[in-house]
Structures are given as structure tokens and as C-alpha cells.
């Protein structure tokens, strides 16, 4: 078909007309109120809008642009979850609610993108699920919905690290749509935190992941609550692989655990707890019973979860193991690996604060200099003191302990594919300083 003939083709003519209309529409920013109504009509319970240039997105901007180079505006929306299912001691009921609303979030994001695309506006809705990506950087999600929701005025982060909506509380799931559209106005963060700091989430967490002082133990939460997600699944598969026969497997994993893993594989990964969400009384729609009778609210909502006899997954010699045995002796401690493995030096250094067990470091005061050579070169200074950890790139100050390691050997050692003694003997790892400081460092990061 010649160029002139193609230009006369009905499909080409209609496309040219549509393109001209779209270009005219893009001269002026899209009306924010129109877009808000579109999102609410698609099923969102609330929505906010954030420019890609907002300072709140500084830490995410590169990831967002790499994901969607045309991004100009982020649409953040929430979907409500029903409260009583999440409060049930039968976690199958709670998980059914999670899965149902996650499906809603996915569908609503799809509908918003579909409507925008029909009007010539480019848009993309990253998945709400976690995790969805596993890369060498260690990041297991394509976009961080929480900071975007906060910037869009949909709530603030509570001490349990969840977004609390001013009206719906933390009984919400988040979705995000990226678009190349510019809007007539955008949303701003709310000027207060709905979190009541009542510490009910502290009292209900079976692994002590939420400290009364605001500290958060990521490893403890991940090991138990996300047992049937990526890390726990890896540990379970390796348990199967390392078992000589079914009898040995059954000695390590009981029938209920196997059935639960099957259910997660068949119908969606199940959260083991998420009690922090269950007991939170924040939010205008939620706060009433708590204000009316705090004691009764605790007895009805938090106490059943505390009293529940259940299996709690913890890493051996972790703060979580100590917490469960002391605070919840009626719950069964299950010692497992959390399956968290760094696939790069960058991921290893970034993950140290999340893996750090502060009670294992209560008497430790030391400066460590790490030097990685070979395929991935890096230098870092790790300071542990007063039950806190600081990780900075480069060598800073005078080190109490120095470690020089081939990067790939170190990654294999973290994956327990090689031992430190063989690495030291082969000179792939060299150390300078008291060996007790290396042992003390290792105790802070059980996995």
C-alpha cells in the first residue's frame, strides 16, 4: 500500500482525528476534580494526586522514572477493608478479606488506566501485591505505595509502620497509578497523624516487632507474618530438598504447615498475623468503641489475639525468639530461617538495619570497616553502639575491626554455600582485629 493510499485508509483517518483531539486536550492540565470522580466511580474509596517533582518522592523518583519514563503525576487511592474479618482469630477469614480487597485494588487500577488510555493519556498501574520482583538489588516491589499515599494526603504512618487513613483507619489497602498527565491541582499531606500511640499494636504483636519506643524489628515481622511469602517459601522448599524421605520431612514440618503452604500456593499467600492492623483503633470510622470503653475494646479485640494458641515462626537466637518465650509462653515457638538472602553487596549493606537485632547487641560498642573486592567493589563503615546500628559508605574513623572480602565469596557465605573458615584459609576473606568482635557482629544478624 502506498503512502498516499495509506493516508486515505479509514483507520488512519480516525487515528489522525483522535490524535489531534488528544493533543488539544493536553494543552491545558487535566481537571483534578474530573479525575477524582473518575477514580471514585471506578471503585476507589478515596484518592489523592502527587506530582513526580514533589520532595516527598525524592527517594523514589529514579525508580518511578525507570518504571515509567513519562510519569508526571501519581494517582494514589485506597480501598477499605471490612474490620471484623481482620480481627478474627481465624486467620483464614482475615486473609480472605486481604485477598478480596487486593483483587479490588488491582481491578480499580486497571479501570482507571483503561479510562485514561481511552482519552489518549498514558498510564500504568503497578501491582498491589508483595513481593512481585526479586532482583540483585534486594528490592522486592516495583513501587512503594505507602510514601506516595502519605504525600497524597491519604493518611500518615503509625508506629506500626502502616498508613492510617484519617477516616477509615488502617483498614485499607493502597494502589498507585502512574500517568503522563499534568493536573490542575494536587493533594497535600494531612497536617496531623491519626495514630493514637495507644500501643495496642505493641501489645498484640506475637513477635515483638513493634517496640514501645517506636523501634521496628523488620526481620521479626517478616519471619513470622510473611512466613508463606518469598523467604519462608524458600526455607520450606529447602527443607523438602534436604529431607531424605517423607518421614524426615514430617519430623520437620507438620501436616498443618504443609496444608497451609498448599493453601497459600493455591489461593494467595497468607499472612500469619497482621495483628497490628487488627487492633488499631485509629480513624474517625473506627475510634468510637475505643473511646467509649478502652478496657472493653482491649478485651474484645486485642486479648483474643494475645491468648490464641498458635505457632510463631522465629529465627534462632533472635530478639523475637526471646520475646515469644517471655511474653507468650502458651504460643509454640517454631525455629526457622527467614530466607532473607542478599544477592549483592549493595543489598547486603542496605539490609543490615532491617536485619539488626538490638537486644543481641546490648553490650556491643564497635566500629567495623568492611572492604569488598572483585566483581562488586565497595567500602563501608558500620557502627554498633547503644543497641543501634549505623551504616555509611566509605571508611570513617578508626576501626575496631576490619574485614576485606571478595564480594562473591561473601554473598555465597551469606547464602551458607561456603563457610567462613574455608574463605579465610583461601584468603578470600581477611580480618584484622579481635575475633570476638566478628562473633558479636554475627550475633546481631541471625537469619
Automatic annotation (TrEMBL):
Q: Does the keyword Iron-sulfur apply?
A: yes
**Protein origin, superkingdom:** Bacteria
Gene3D superfamilies referenced in this protein's UniProt entry, alphabetically: 3.30.70.3270, SCP2 sterol-binding domain (3.30.1050.10)
User: Keywords, A to Z?
Assistant: Iron, Iron-sulfur, Metal-binding
Please give the Pfam families that the UniProt record associates with this protein: Fer4, SCP2
Residue ranges annotated for the 4Fe-4S ferredoxin-type domain, each copy included: 186-215
Q: Please indicate if the UniProt record lists DNA-binding as a keyword.
A: no
Where, by residue number, does the polypeptide cross the bilayer? none
Question: Which PANTHER family does the UniProt record give?
Answer: IRON-SULFUR CLUSTER-BINDING PROTEIN (PTHR42827:SF1), IRON-SULFUR CLUSTER-BINDING PROTEIN-RELATED (PTHR42827)
User: Under which name does UniProt file this protein?
Assistant: 4Fe-4S ferredoxin-type domain-containing protein
